[in-house]
Recover the amino acids of this structure.
């Protein structure tokens, strides 16, 4: 028995084959809205139930509730607005789309979903940036991205015509079946957008001691330019799962979402998603979903202590190797000074790989570092 979906019911807004064919047959007569990657991935995640209980893009009551109180209008905690504010430049006919219309959402010209427009309201981007990201600075990647958004939010339920992500991305229904098949009653999710650091492995093992299974669910989809490419993350985790972890206890699948670097707020959103995928526990490490120095690295820990999302947060301090203890430790478990610690951040590891240096063995497994060398040109470009 996996965890109940958030809000109690797993949403399914994927059209049946017959309904899909009917829409595609009459598509030339429909109004259209061109959407960006975030819009397409959000539509897909809504439709497959990853964002349950959302059935579409948020209306004004949900949107303002999330901004002001981190709550949907039904009272459930929700921290990241899921909205559609289409770009004006790519949508000259946007003004002709009215409440009651059901335009088709196009991504790179391909029909993705039907939006049943229930509301249109102005989008205050400054307010959004301030409330969600705590800053209006362009140096924040999500704030910068907001510049491209339109000035009007279109909301309403959606029906999915076509998937955006590859077949390797499982739906919540599929992961739930997989957990059941494995007989896992308790499953801890690990959120990541990095290849496995030894410190990550340590935390995963600690967490797995407490539950039946570990679900490694790296974010692919839309990331910031200095993150590792998704293929590097998946490939290195696949290696770890194949060569180190017991197959019966660890399951790996990608999650294609548009990453929101909103620190603690994003951490709550990421936990809710994992509840929908059937997880009972969620690992919250240091500076989860953070960027730069915008967020308190342990702000998410404080937030989760005061929330009841129906998924249990497993809180971990930053871990590193201690030469005196001769093991992985945290500030909670080791009393030695920093000079005894081997502490290398993921940013430093990226730089070492670009420079052709081998990260220390207690920081990254050498075979993983070797495997990442081929992503050097990509990492180099991202560091610029
Ligand atoms: Zn120590």
């Amino acid at each position: 028995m996996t965890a109940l979906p958030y809000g109690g019911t797993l949403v399914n807004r994927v059209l049946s084959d017959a309904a899909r064919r009917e829409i595609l047959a009459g598509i030339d007569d429909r109004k259209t809205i061109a959407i960006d990657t975030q819009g397409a991935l959000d539509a897909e995640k809504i439709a497959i139930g990853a964002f349950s209980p959302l059935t579409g893009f948020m209306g004004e009551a949900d949107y303002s509730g999330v901004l002001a109180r981190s709550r949907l209008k039904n009272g459930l905690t929700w921290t990241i607005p899921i909205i559609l504010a289409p770009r004006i430049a790519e949508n000259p006919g946007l003004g002709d789309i009215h409440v009651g219309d059901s335009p088709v959402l196009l991504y790179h010209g391909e029909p993705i979903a039907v939006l049943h427009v229930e509301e249109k309201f102005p989008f205050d981007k400054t307010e959004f940036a301030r409330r969600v990201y705590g800053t209006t600075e362009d140096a924040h990647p999500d704030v910068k991205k907001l510049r491209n958004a339109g000035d009007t939010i279109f909301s309403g339920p959606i029906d999915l015509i076509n998937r955006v992500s590859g077949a390797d991305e499982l739906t919540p229904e599929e992961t739930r079946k997989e957990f059941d098949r494995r007989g896992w009653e308790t499953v801890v999710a690990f959120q990541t957008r990095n290849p496995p650091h030894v410190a990550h492995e340590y935390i995963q093992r600690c967490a797995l001691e407490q539950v039946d299974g570990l679900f490694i669910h790296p974010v692919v989809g839309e990331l910031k330019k200095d993150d590792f490419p998704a293929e590097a993350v998946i490939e290195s985790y696949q290696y770890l799962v194949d060569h180190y972890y017991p197959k019966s206890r660890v399951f790996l699948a990608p999650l294609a979402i548009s990453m929101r670097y909103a620190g603690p707020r994003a951490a709550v959103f990421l936990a809710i998603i994992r509840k929908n995928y059937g997880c009972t526990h969620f690992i919250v490490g240091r500076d989860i979903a953070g960027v730069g120095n915008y967020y308190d690295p342990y702000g998410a820990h404080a937030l989760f202590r005061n929330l009841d999302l129906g998924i249990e947060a497993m809180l971990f301090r930053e871990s590193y190797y201690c030469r005196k203890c001769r093991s992985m430790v945290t500030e909670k478990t080791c009393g030695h000074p920093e000079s005894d610690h081997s502490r290398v951040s993921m940013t430093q590891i990226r730089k070492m790989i670009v420079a052709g240096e081998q990260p220390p063995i207690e920081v990254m497994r050498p075979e993983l570092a070797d495997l990442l060398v081929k992503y050097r040109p990509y990492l180099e470009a991202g560091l610029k």
In short: Residues 129 and 135 are 6 Å apart (CA to CA).
